[in-house]
């Protein structure tokens, strides 16, 4: 109709010979002709479909003759014919016609034709044929360098016209999964949910199972989270798949340990999975999402009360708006409901006090925790070791470090390094080194930062023998080897002690081991040579620095 109006405008603008009545007459004639042609086409399509129904066995030759008059080689016409055969009793006939057309030379079915026939077949319960055609159209899209996502859009767009059933979308998601088109399957699922179409749990389980087997663990958790978001709740098969995902990630024991600290007893696999999901969401900083999922899980008995309360407090603790007063209020509310306190929450509050520098309160909570028979764990000691060191309470920091070792635990490397950094700036340097020796005997794995802090500390004390001893100790350890940070600390210590000959030696070793000196390293050596009066060597290093395209340190 838009075309007719445009034609009318053209006639009015370009032809001054015609008056208004003549123009209207032409448009009326054109409209009548077009309408008649459409009516004739519709009549022919109806006649064709009726003939196909009557002559189900001997219509091949007859249909070939009808091709020219009906223009059955056009996708739009084919789609109209298929729509006339949309009823379940015509499904087999529609499929036969679809395949017959596919064999015709120079004819290719479009995505819409594929989607219409799939709807017809699913409604007629020809599920194997429908699946085969879905696989075919998806493979063609991928081989043509196009996305398979268009198929879900067209399938949804033709859904009402074919009077289809929702299972067709389950079949599509399952086919995406079978073809390992996982990201497209997930996007298709979200697209359908946005359009108020829900797939069955069976389809989700198939998708999540195949994704997990393909080691795409990030996507596995995204899918599981989306299930909870859309209130598609898991069954035993889903939970089993997610437990396998946790095992592959090596995080199952972490989740079990968290629940042991909260609940004190082993929990069901479902609670383990759901706790792990909430932790991931909170750690990503999506606090509000985590709280929403917790509420839904509680409503469906998918998580235990004490776990839910503890995770809620943890979520608040991780938010920017957290303060100890609001946290304590939630904790008191939990206790008033008859839910017992636990090691996890005590550690949380001890950590909060350590962050605020209120170490006395943190120590008091530690003692209260022990009185209640709650067992401190590695993280409890970690926050106390770091907190005490940060405010200069080094004796207490070392004491907690000794206590954690007595309990058969080890501090984290990052926490020990933070304590070491503070101790190495003071008279506690030697105690720090002794503590490292104790930890090494217990299986502690230091890193380059650990040795760098100690080398810096001994360098400031002028104890080059200890500096070199630490360097060689690091060289012979299999778990850490000297890198840029170590060499920078070593050269700085040597320069500060006027050991320039040794500094030049280790600069050469550094280069031989493909550790590229930085501007800072060069500048230390240049300044030291100038200070010693060796201008020639200082200028050589300066030229070397320029050749390396490094900017001088100002």
Order of helices and strands: HHHHHHHHHHHHHHHHHHHHHHHHHHHHHH
* Biggest beta sheet summary: none
Strand content: under 5%
The residue fraction in helices comes out at over 70%
| Average pLDDT rating | 88
Distance between the termini: 76 Å
Q: What structural category characterises the helix and strand content?
A: mainly alpha
Tally of individual helices? 30
Number of strands: 0
Shape: elongated
List low-pLDDT spans.
Answer: 1-18, 23-36
What's the arrangement of secondary structure elements?
Elements: H1 2-14, H2 20-54, H3 60-70, H4 75-84, H5 91-102, H6 111-123, H7 127-143, H8 149-157, H9 167-178, H10 182-194, H11 201-213, H12 217-229, H13 236-249, H14 252-263, H15 269-283, H16 287-299, H17 305-318, H18 324-336, H19 343-356, H20 359-371, H21 378-390, H22 394-406, H23 413-423, H24 429-441, H25 448-460, H26 464-475, H27 484-496, H28 500-512, H29 519-532, H30 535-547
Helix pairs in contact: 1-2, 4-6, 5-6, 6-7, 6-8, 7-9, 8-10, 9-10, 9-11, 11-12, 11-13, 12-13, 13-15, 14-15, 15-16, 15-17, 16-17, 17-18, 17-19, 18-19, 19-20, 19-21, 20-21, 21-22, 21-23, 22-23, 22-24, 23-25, 25-26, 25-27, 26-27, 27-28, 27-29, 29-30
């Amino acid at each position: 109709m838009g075309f007719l109006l445009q034609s009318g405008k053209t006639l009015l603008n370009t032809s001054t010979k015609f008056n208004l009545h003549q123009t209207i007459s032409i448009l009326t004639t054109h409209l009548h002709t077009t309408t008649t042609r459409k009516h004739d086409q519709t009549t022919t399509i109806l006649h064709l479909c009726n003939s196909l129904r009557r002559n189900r066995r001997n219509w091949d030759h007859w249909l070939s003759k009808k091709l020219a008059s009906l223009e059955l080689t056009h996708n739009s016409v084919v789609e109209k014919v298929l729509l006339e055969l949309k009823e379940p009793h015509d499904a087999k006939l529609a499929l036969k016609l679809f395949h017959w057309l596919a064999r015709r030379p120079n004819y290719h079915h479009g995505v819409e034709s594929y989607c219409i026939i799939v709807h017809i077949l699913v409604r007629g319960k020809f599920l194997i044929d429908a699946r085969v055609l879905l696989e075919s159209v998806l493979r063609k899209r991928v081989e043509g360098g196009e996305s398979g996502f268009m198929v879900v859009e067209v399938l949804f767009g033709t859904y009402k016209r074919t009077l289809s059933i929702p299972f067709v979308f389950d079949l599509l998601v399952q086919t995406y999964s079978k073809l390992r088109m996982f990201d497209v399957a997930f996007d298709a699922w979200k697209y359908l949910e946005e359009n108020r179409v829900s797939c069955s749990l069976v389809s989700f389980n198939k998708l999540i199972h195949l994704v997990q087997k393909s080691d795409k663990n990030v996507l596995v958790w995204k899918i599981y989270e989306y299930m909870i978001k859309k209130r598609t709740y898991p069954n035993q098969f889903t939970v089993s798949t997610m437990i396998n995902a946790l095992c592959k990630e090596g995080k199952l024991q972490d989740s079990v340990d968290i629940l042991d600290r909260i609940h004190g007893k082993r929990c069901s696999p479902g609670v383990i999975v759901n706790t792990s999901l909430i932790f991931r969401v909170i750690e990503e900083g999506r606090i509000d999402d985590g709280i929403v999922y917790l509420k839904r899980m509680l409503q469906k008995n998918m998580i235990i009360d004490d776990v839910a309360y503890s995770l809620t407090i943890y979520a608040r603790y991780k938010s920017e708006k957290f303060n100890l007063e609001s946290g304590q209020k939630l904790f008191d509310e939990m206790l008033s409901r008859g839910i017992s306190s636990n090691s996890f929450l005590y550690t949380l509050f001890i950590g909060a006090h350590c962050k605020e520098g209120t170490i006395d309160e943190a120590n008091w909570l530690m003692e209260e925790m022990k009185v209640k028979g709650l067992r401190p764990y590695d993280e409890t000691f970690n926050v106390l070791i770091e907190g005490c060191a940060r405010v200069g309470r080094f004796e207490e920091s070392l004491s907690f470090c000794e206590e954690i070792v007595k309990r058969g635990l080890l501090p984290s490397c990052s926490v020990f390094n933070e304590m070491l950094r503070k101790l190495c700036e003071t008279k506690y340097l030697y105690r720090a080194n002794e503590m490292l020796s104790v930890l090494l005997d217990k299986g502690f794995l230091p890193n380059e930062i650990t040795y760098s802090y100690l080398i810096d500390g001994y360098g400031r004390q002028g104890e080059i023998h200890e500096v070199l001893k630490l360097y060689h100790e690091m060289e012979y350890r299999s778990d850490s080897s000297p890198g840029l940070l170590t060499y920078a600390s070593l050269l700085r210590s040597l320069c500060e002690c006027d050991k320039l000959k040794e500094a030049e030696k280790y600069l050469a070793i550094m280069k031989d081991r493909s550790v590229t000196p930085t501007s800072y390293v060069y500048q230390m050596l240049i300044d030291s040579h100038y200070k010693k009066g060796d201008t020639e060597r200082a200028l050589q290093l300066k030229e070397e620095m320029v050749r390396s395209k490094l900017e001088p340190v100002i």
